[in-house]
Every structure is written in structure tokens, then in C-alpha cells.
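Predict structure. Chain length: 206.
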Amino acid sequence: LADSEAFDGELYVEAVRSVLGIDIEADWNGYRHRTDSGILNEIIDRSTPNADRSSLHSAVRRHFTVLVSDYVAARGGVIPEIPGAMQFVSRLMKHPGVHVAVATGGWKETALIKLRAIGLDPLRLPLASSSDAMSKVDIMRIAERRTLQNEKAKRKTYFGDSRYDKEVSLELGYDFIAIGKNVNNLPRYSNFLDMGSILDDMGLAG
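Prediction complete.
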């Protein structure tokens, strides 16, 4: 939803360097769980396996949150959305029988900052994040429970921008719609502007 690819990875790398004194690359493909907590857990296991993992997690998370907050504040509290994202989410939320939730591999604190920075009140949507679980599978399951409550879904769709998102969606039996150019998939859209076609792919046209 938020166009944060240009800064999110760099700031994560900076937070790890500042707190742990370790230089890493912003390439998450070699990690088992490509979430903020999963990546950090693996970094700690590789570098300082006997360290107090909980305190290191907290320190990196706090520093990363400050970096993201400062980055957004320096831009007047606004960052770009993926074109059409806000309008599309609003449309889905008004659609009868549709439940919407956010499932992100980022930590809750930074997810809230980014959602607010594109003009979306995060209190309007159930949200699950890397603050809830380490694996994206578990994060998506938590998001599903939070939005469905005791209801059953006839069809589930996940929007993502990575091969990892696609793999997890297939594992959970979700339909997957790719946004952006980072993953080969059909359907795939550059953004959310072609709302009619996306809704058609979801079985919601009309």
C-alpha cells in the first residue's frame, strides 16, 4: 500500500549496523522468514548466538522505528502510496461481504507510521505484523482471524510484491495478486488504478 521500498530496507540495514555493529545487505532472499523479526533473529543467531536475543530485538526495533519516523517526518509526514491504493482499500471496505485486513512482514510500529503517512487510519483495519509472529504464514493467519472473527471465508486473496508473498499465499491456499514488477505472476498489476480488472480477478466485479 505504501511506496516504501526505496527507504525501508536501507533504514533496516542502518538500524542493524548502529545497534549490532554488523553490516548486512538489503537482500532478504537468503533468509528463512523474510520479516523484520525473522531476519533479525537469523542475523543474531549467525553473529552472536549467545547474546540476549530479546534485548537486541527490542533495541533494533526501537532504533528502526525512530529512523522510519524521522524519515517520514522530514517529508512532512507524507510518503507516496502505491497509486490507487487508498481508493481501492476504501472500495473493498464498502463491498458487501468483504473483510479487509493488513498482514505485513514489518513491525507494527513502522507499519502504523507508513499507513498513516499515506493517509490510511490503521485503526480502520485489523492488522497483523512481525510484532505478532516471526513467519509470514503465521502473520497472515493472525490477520485472517482478526478480520473474520468467527466467520468463514469462501475465497481469500492476498496482494503482495515479492516471490515470498506468493509462496506464502500458495501455502495458505490464498489467491495471489502481484503488485509491482518484483514477482512473476498472473494476475499482476503495476498499481491499484485498474480497479475494475482487479475486482474482476477477485470475483467481485459488478
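Summary: The CA atoms of residues 97 and 154 lie 10 Å apart.
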